[in-house]
Amino acid sequence: MRLNRTRSVLGVACLLSVVGLSACGSSTANPGGSGTGAASTSATLGVVGTSLHCAKPPAPAASAPQLQLPSKRTAQGKTFTAVLQTSCGNVTFELYGDKAPQTVASFLQLAKSYWDDSPCHRLTTQGIYVLQCGDPTGTGTGSTGYGFGIENAPENGDYPAGTVAMARGDDPDSNGGQFFIVYKDTQLPTNTGGYSIFGKVVDGMDIVNAVAKTGTNSSTGDGAPTQPISILKVTVTEKKKA
Fold this sequence. Notes:
rotamase; Cyclophilin_A-like; globular; Cyclophilin; 16 strands
């Protein structure tokens, strides 16, 4: 089932679908705002065995910084640990520089400051199950100023819970700064090349699940999460081989 919605960004129309993940953003998000479904100073989300506290997210950026694509040699053959400090607690990724070197090299560059105080602007709860982040403006239309191709996309379209992969538009070379975290096993289309898997969540999945559990105020199940969550800062360290 497709949602026949389009948005023109710099003259380029971006088609959104519940069976695909676009880096162009959802029209159900709050344009120019924080991308939040319900503003609050703090909130407590109930998760089995845990109690999660979220602070009020900071205001998003007015525009996304424009950068140059870094060399994939920065990450080639290496693995990394990335800690995302969020307004709801820390989420830790393992990054596959050995499997997706260009994607991870881009992540290393963007982690320095690009994602500081950036909302996770999109939650999908029908058909696909992901939390999408990586746009400093929180609108879903922010771009790094560069694009690159697909890496390490599964041929069978399987994206298990905990997978971290790149969001993109219809163009296979439109990977940039937006990525998604899969919170429930998801099947994604492979006809246009699939979506680059570049890591997995190794800690903090309870936070993602708790945010997902609150859902979205969108009737389509595709919009800003009801519980706002923002990336405050990202710290990356290389995992040294024994």
